[in-house]
User: What shape does this take?
Amino acid sequence: MTMKNGQQYWRSLESLADSPEFKARLKEEFPLGASELEVKGGVDRRNFLGLIGASMALAGVTTTGCIRKPREKILPYAVRPEDLVEGRAQQYASALRTGSSVLGILVTTHENRPTKIEGNPMHPFSLGGTNTWAQATILDLYDPDRSQTPSQRGAAATWQSVEAQLTDIASGLKGTQGTGAAILVDGAPSSVARGLVAELQRGAPALKIYVDDAGQRSAQASALAAAGLPGAEVSLELDKADVVLALDADFLGLEGDVVRNSKLFMSRRRIVDANSTMNRLYVVEPNFTHTGFVADNRLLLRAGEVGEFLLAIANELGAKGVQVPERGTRTVSGKPYQAWASGVAADLAANRGKAVVVVGDKQPAWVHGLALSLNEALGATGTTVRYVPDSEALVPAGGLAELAQALNAGSVQTLVMLGGNPVYTAPADIAFGDALQKARTSVHLSYHADETSRLATLHVPRAHALESWGDLRSTDGTYAITQPAIAPLFESLSEIEVLARLAGRQPARGYELTKNHWQTKLARPDFERLWARWLHDGVVSEVEKPNITTVAFNFAGLRPLFEAAVVSPEPTPESLEIRFPLSAQVFDGRYANNAWLQELPDSVSKLTWDNAALLAPKTAKALSVESGQMLKIEFDGRALEIPAWITPGIAENVVVVPQGWGRSFEGRVCKGTGFNANAIRTSAAVSFGSGARVTKVAGTYELATTQDHGSMENRPIVRETTFADFRQQPDFVNKYELMAPEKQKTFLWKRPYEFKEGHQWGMAIDLNVCTGCNACAVACTAENNVSVVGKERVLKGREMHWLRIDRYFNGSVDDPQVVSQPMICQHCENAPCEQVCPVGATVHSPEGMNDMAYNRCIGTRYCANNCPYKVRRFNYFAFAKENDEQNPLYAMQKNPNVTVRFRGVIEKCSYCVHRVNEAKIEAKKISGGVVADGRIVTACMQVCPTDAIVFGDINNPDSRVAQWKAQPRNYVVLGELATQPRTSYLAKLRNPNPELV
Amino acid sequence: MTMETTASLNTTLEPVDRRAPLVLGNETFASVTNTVCAPAEIPLKRTPLVWYVCLAISLAMLSLLGVSVGWLFWEGVGIWGNNSPVYWAWDITNFVFWVGIGHAGTLISAVLFLFRQKWRTSINRFAEAMTIFAVMCALIFPGIHVGRVWTAYWLMPIPNQMSAWPNFRSPLLWDVFAVSTYATVSALFWYTGLLPDLATLRDRAKSTVAKVAYGIFSLGWRGSNRHWQNYEKAYQILAGLSTPLVLSVHTIVSFDFATSQLPGWHTTIFPPYFVAGAIFSGFAMVINLMIIARWIFKLENLVTIRHFENMAKIILLTGSLVGYAYGMEFFIAWYSGNPYETFAFQNRAFGPYAWAYWTMISCNVISPQLFWFKKIRTNLWALFIISVFVNIGMWFERFVIIVTSLHRDFLPSSWAYFRPTFWDVATFVGSWGLFFTMFCLFVRFLPMVAISEVKSVMPEADPHYGHGKH
Assistant: This one.
């Protein structure tokens, strides 16, 4: 064992684990797990720790199918760790990088087994919320395909040889001053890592640092650099903005600090009554994003034209007397959107100081430059948008393209890749795989033995973010310490542990490295006390945040960018514009082996388990293509075969091919899913390009969607009006009623409960702030042990999500609007499901919840037939058992407070009844059984980045939920059926500019 | 199959004494006994090959049922095509179909008995057997369609230590009571009627096995006056008990749908509509089976064309009732002004399952109208083919009601399309295997015509026989 871990309490097991007798005994005791998890090339201690954990988990989980009493051994604590009470969850503060943002998180652990991630309310970039990726990260931790052993050119290697090779590289660096050596980092590294890199560069000045820009933030960075702010971060202060113009920018979905953006932006859309105010969002985009969902006015425009649109805005602003510091020499005229641009410009000009222009990461640098300039002109700088310099920012020698060049030229001979998967993610023309093989030594630290690992000379397993020490810096300079919630399940190294080895540090353990770094960095006498607080709070409060309100831009520096701007030609059906967005599920492919995300329906296309070439109905008609038809997309001399999927809301003559699918890494989850956009993506067209030729090829492909039908059929399911109409008629929701609301409360017979006493639980969902981001759906899956069913079963309509997001289009099919509605069990007071169950397996609680008694359910499915909301799910097979068999580690993620459902029973949203009961038990001890408002937070409510969901006691008029329900926008879905749902919705409003039609 | 057009046979409108006899061909009491007992009395070694062939095919289908159900129990309901939102599909379609088939038997035996419709005597045994076998097939489906079959008995109100009772508000529970009562009463009724004939077989039996077997099952029947008196009373009482069941069973089966709130299910017309449909399909099935049995076992004198014609008239009547119900459903869907209801019916006729709907309409509404023509309702080929159509149509009726209502309900977000799997088909075909197997055994070992009852409608049974008019 060369690896030593920082946490002392595992030591006793460690010594045991080393003895062959103990190994043999363990194997005997856990024959199933032991054989499955055995690692070729030497069994190690951490496997056994993992096994012990897994067995504990299995013992706590109701096993599925016919085997009713699993014979599993439970290992009790011989010495109970301090502060640990069996059965009570603990939370540890940490931080997590998701997409291009950093989230402060709280990791829930049960008996030291992480099971759930929540947002840290004390962290300014999560504010208690999280997103889909943060939620799904917990499953990644238990990915059975994660790399468990180092390998050398594909063959298993020992940790001794890893250590030896890293030591070799370290001494080589010293010897050559770093000539011919390079480090590739994946996104912005931690402060600890930057300290180590600086240390390395001091010893080896020629050492080059390259940055793999998976989040595609480089265009903005180049614009900022050109304007004299290299390395600065952009922080949107959307709570201060009355008017937001988003140009191909998904700031509420995938780009930037989405959780914080969502929280701040939506704080301006919480409409209580006619006196409330509402911000306005203009979105110009080529395909629907979450931001586009929310848009008050949306202009459908292909990506190549977005810059031109912004030029038109600049023209109009200039015409209105707004001084634009720098906008190049080009002007735009005669475009169909001229009137639109004029209207938007007028609105922006009228709201100077309260307006902001946001440009998406997919747009080229000159558009970002123009936005910098316009934001300055609109008085946004320092108020609605802040530029935060980072003194520690790395000065990279380039990105993947430059690194590939250096590799091909032989100027980089030794390459250490800290994370990332450039062989897969790099655009095709870079041919990174070929370049990589030219390096004499290449080390790849990676969570999976992926495409890059296979070509590298040495692959080192990387510890999961929840297993490693470090820190993360948010956009505004907030630091958070990342602390592990569990010892690594398999022997692995973190990013900083590898860097420390290269720097020749001893001891090179994450804990010491992090702690020492911060001790040095802050040099505070009371460091130990502070350190303990940081770990507790999850935020390093002692670092001064740069608070810059005025920025001295060098706008003249933007001129070359404007001059280099390329005007993309108008696409035709013969020569389409092609667009490569990052995936909302698998991002750049890093989450491809995450079953929850694979099965998560895309918010717009509702596809699961695959990507597809998305086309607008008009484009598809011109190409005479139908959904599922295999297409050949030829772009820049390369071709990709991919099925078509017709989705409204895409600009005409644009084909959208999301990145991140079609990995050649054969994980048991991602194998065979989707098609690799990177095969045709080029470095000139990182996000979009023109001149793609789409032709039909033989064959069709079955795509699994969870929602075929996009129209509401004129039913009052999602109720929506404009803000102006709402002010005229605040109770507009009632005009949609098919039956008068008071009549909806009449019943034929006496009800078992009058629901007047004690706590009466209810929920309200504000559709006006819902972005349809899916975070609640994943959170629900994580909290409630919801099974994954796989593509075949989704095709059969058997997905198990307790919470689904219904998506409806309205308006014209060529330029629709879209609304999303989280749909869960409505907990009807007069529940149709309860009436028909022949065995009384679903019954009402006196507190108004519709409960499921799983072990009473015999599976007639009558309840599901009679549920008008179709929120009940049936275990057609032993899904949970299959999940555990296919992914043996998944059992460790299970929430012990929620029954794992077996084959043949119905399941559905329980309003997180286990959380309700936990709070009630707590309340019994401290407040005489009365649960204070806000004490119960359901999983969906907790995760929501826009606080669109509120749960509580509707019997208490002061509770938030009762107040929401008293709002004029409150309505229930299908109320005319007299189901009396406990879940109600607050109607959606849009605030369109009346001048734009 | 012989072709007959014996128009003069139908003399229903004539005064009773001038009506044509129900049994033709100068049959005597002895010849009737001989004809009916003949199939049961063939020595095992000389069983006709055709019977073995039929039994082999039936058994093959039955074993398909065994395999399907075994695989279902092993894997779960997921082997079928059921999905969300179509949680019920072929399973419940088959259940309602078979229960419907099972209606003709009791109607013929009990209702026609109480109304003194003497023409029933030659076909009632046959129809009752069909009822029992159909109900057996029907009972399979609710039992196996549940997710956890090993707990299916929880549907019964069995006292237990946890005091967990079924939910008496659930129509599914009413179903359990209704169908099991029907199965029990039908079986008792059939068995009671069989007693005198079993005794006849016992008395004529030559082999020891037959003697013992028929001896046990005839319960010591000696044909004494007291026996006959008790028998007639019992038969009458059971007929009285069965009659309301004919109406109640399918009424309650229809409650499964009518009391739910799904558009397309939630309609008050269902009880009469389901009962009419059940009689409709039951009679069609009797005609199909009877034509074959009559031909194979040469029962032309006992089962005359007049029987078929009467049954054809009932099919015409019930078919028209069903057609009226279809029309009325559409009227109410429009008249109610309920948008979900209106949509459900538009979707039925013009949605993705329009093919199933129009199959149903063609088979159930259009094809029986041909029975207005005497030539058609007295032509055995036409009768046979139209009856097959009726059964296809009635299967589709249940499919249309169940699947097309479920596949698109209130929230368009959950709409989906159902496709059956191999196992759906196999289970259904397998249930036919059970039905035919039971039938093969029935025609081979039991009297398929009620000997004593037929004799009672023969001229010889008339005390004034041979003495002219009075």
Remarks:
- Residues 8-461 of chain B form one domain.
- Chain B has one domain: 8-461.
- Confidence is low (pLDDT under 50) at residues 1-7 of chain B.
- Chain B is about 65% helix and 0% strand.
